[in-house]
Amino acid sequence: xxxxxxxxxxxxxxxxxxxxxxxxxxxxxxxxxxxxxxxxxxxxxxxxxxxxxxxxxxxxxxxxxxxxxxxxxxxxxxxxxxxxxxxxxxxxxxxxxxxxxxxxxxxxxxxxxxxxxxxxxxxxxxxxxxxxxxxxxxxxxxxxxxxxxxxxxxxxxxxxxxxxxxxxxxxxxxxxxxxxxxxxxxxxxxxxxxxxxxxxxxxxxxxxxxxxxxxxxxxxxxxxxxxxxxxxxxxxxxxxxxxxxxxxxxxxxxxxxxxxxxxxxxxxxxxxxxxxxxxxxxxxxxxxxxxxxxxxxxxxxxxxxxxxxxxxxxxxxxxxxxxxxxxxxx
Length: 330
Ligand code: HEM
Ligand SMILES: *[C@@H]1O[C@H](CO)[C@@H](O)[C@H](O)[C@H]1NC(C)=O
Description:
By secondary structure, this protein is mostly helical.
């Protein structure tokens, strides 16, 4: 047989397969991404989360929400961590995030340690994803493995938060739409809403339901009147104190249990966006199922967090590894 320079069919197939494999690797996150480059990365983050929660266990809720607000705005790229500058109002200074979003110092502390150990290796976006997982675990949720390799974005605009994050006044159709825009199903929307079993809300986020519901009715009739009366005491009308806040699941505000679904079933969901889940038969069914089967919900919650953590990620050569999570690299 004559020797030829032409590649054989199996060779072409093999090359195509290899190329496909490399492209897939580049577009996806990987478990154990830092095993070779910074083996202790996840332990360092966990240790900082543990220390942060010792000063205030409310930070668990803060870190879980931080990951959500990062991922829904420009993908999970750490853009929520960037500080505003003289010429830019960043995501974190949108009224949606400031003053309520918390846990930034924990991310800063983890990043500082990681820069000392493995300079320029671990992205801020991955730190947020690891920290949210640790917070879930420490609040009594189910632990899960976090695929990593996210890169950090270089853009953060407050205006992006209004169009990408759901408002607490949203009805079930709007919620479903906003989550679908991020590749999440309606069922995952109901599952992730269960995060409101931990943490707090400022009065300003729901006081419309107590005092200014609509032009003819001051109080939202879908809110349990006894609970409304209690909330009115905690959140007096016209209070000028912007830091007034109440627990979202008063029975167990620090525990990632299915108390949220019990509350919604009792018309004690704090936001319209919580209570609205009973207005659609599919979402109402899921609320019921999650309320009666907390162990299954914990598993579904962990899986939905992994999926949320992959929204719009930057990988490969995209973006950068920020040196300081609060500022893009110069
Ligand atoms: C379904 C649509 C959602 C809406 C409309 C919504 C809205 C809100 C609002 C208004 C607050 C209170 C902020 C404040 O005033 O202090 C809040 C708190 C919180 N949200 Fe959501 N949220 C949604 C989904 C989620 C998801 C998917 C997660 C995470 C997986 C999440 C996690 C949290 C946590 C943990 C808190 C408490 C934060 C703290 O205590 O610092 N939320 N949410
Ligand atoms: C206000 O809300 C009540 C209770 O849901 C409803 O019956 C009424 O039609 C609403 N009024 C307006 C003007 O939307």
